[in-house]
Amino acid sequence: MTGNGKLVLALPSKGRLMDQCNAALAKAGIVVERTGPARGYKGEIAGMPDVEVNFVSSGEIAQFLKSGSAHLGITGEDLIRENMADADERVRLLAGLGFGRADVVVAVPACWLDVRRMSDLEEMALAYARLHGRRVRVATKYMTMTRRFFAKSGVTGYRIVESLGATEGAPAAGLAELIVDITTTGATLKANGLKVLDDGVILQSEANLIASNAAPWTPELSAIEARIVAQLRG
Amino acid sequence: MSPAATLADSDALDAEARRLMAAFTGAGYERIAPAVIQPAGLFLDVIGESLRGRTYVFSDPDGEELCLRPDLTVPTCRWHLERHPGGRAAARYCYSGSAFRYQPVGADSAHPREFHQAGIESFGVADREADDAAVLVLILDALRTSGLDGLQIRIGDLGLFNALINAIAMPERWRRRLKNKFWRSDAFRAELARLKAGPAAHGQGLPSELVLALDPADAETTTARVLDYLDRTGIELIGTRTAEEIAERLTAEAADLQEPPLAPEKAALIERYVAIKAPVHEVADRLTELAHASGVDLAAAVAAYRRRLALIEAAGISMRGAEFSAEFGRNLEYYTGFVFEVIAPALGAKSPVAGGGRYDSLLAEVGALLPVPAVGASIHTERMLAVLPGARP
Q1: Which of A6, A159, B186, B323 sees the fewest Cβ atoms within 10 Å?
Q2: How far is A103 from chain B (nearest CA, A)?
């Protein structure tokens, strides 16, 4: 798909993220039109004949950027950080787009009055292992980010339990002791009896225009990148 | 690399592994072959998430979570426990096989994702110093028999650190924190600074009405107070931690608020110990001096250190030139005592040719009924081959 010398731009194919993405692009004067069959997954940009648009699921956009199948893509920073252990080597974050805002946070039961910071968590985890004979479990779908953040915070005595849905319910259900999850207002966490640790914000994420380092760049395509970035930044 | 070169390398590795295994079995170690595929849960519980990030974990069609073994020590423990439930029997094992670790982009050839380990593990020997010495001596002998020379040895000793912390008067919970963080120098320094700074550094955000009401001497009332507080503030008690557990840690925090900071001379003593980096023969005298000047008793730990060193040299290994570093650690959480690394100058300290140490709590974590003394070490055979004169075809 990168064989025709065009710049490949990967955009979310559905949902709220797609709508917000189209709106942001339109506001910047970039009009994306789907081509081919009515529900096609290809598109083009008016006035930019050297750009080919691919509509894919937002999770896949990270993979496209990692492999270089797309030159540019728009997706959440959280998905980039989670899908690439070494994101800063593989991609460049060009512009925050102001939508898709969400924080990736460490949340524990609000009844843990004794745990307010990451350093408390480490000590609590030690005591927990002594008493329960196993490590505290962290339910999350953000395994890479969790591991990295916990290591940076000096927390080691835990185990990750992969959770693909309704993560916030895991502590009350006894499936995990704490969670790492995404939150926008904190209301869902609160409703599930959880609180965010004082220093437990791992990432303040938003949708980003992102460039792949692995894609086949030419001076012409880099010029198009610069033009798109300039328009998006207004 | 061409297919032919890969095959030649593989043959050379096999031949090398056979020579090493002959040295190990000759010394009375029984050869075993633990499974490559291991249950992920147990492994991850024992080795911690830091290594999990580098472990190949997958699910089989039944949904069971499995992993490719990231080392052979835990599989050897499992092997031992299957044969000797309870784990009390003494045994010596040796193995040779592949281990697997994810390597980030840009890793060099000394860090392949699939590598070979030839190693030994000794379980249940009560004379720890003698067994520590025997393991190091056998590994060095095996390397030398294979033709490796000019090796450097680095050692460390968690036993000395634990003895020091135990000898300094402070609350037991502070000791636990310091011991737990010892391997991670940043976290350790931060903890020491926190203890030195005293109560002001603790307890931020603690509900003060609750803290004042907690009585360390009366666990039952304390738990009731916590439950009462949660009730009044409309917080539901959820999850697997009980109110007792929460109360216990809160009480410890409350006690910390009243505790005077760690005295500067005590903190300085710990800092001086951690900074020790010296030829192995100077360490015991330095420690004795340090202990004497600070009025703490380290006699037993220092005597054990001296005895181990004497046993290593009595076996014909010169430790002149070997270096002790108090902070020297291998990044596995399970070591508990003597640790060592063998370095070939051509590869450098970042890619040791062999390493090992004592891990007295691992067997119990894997399922033994009581702690079992254990010490082991392994040789990274690819690295060894890379520095053997004339080994590459």
Answers
A1: B186
A2: 22
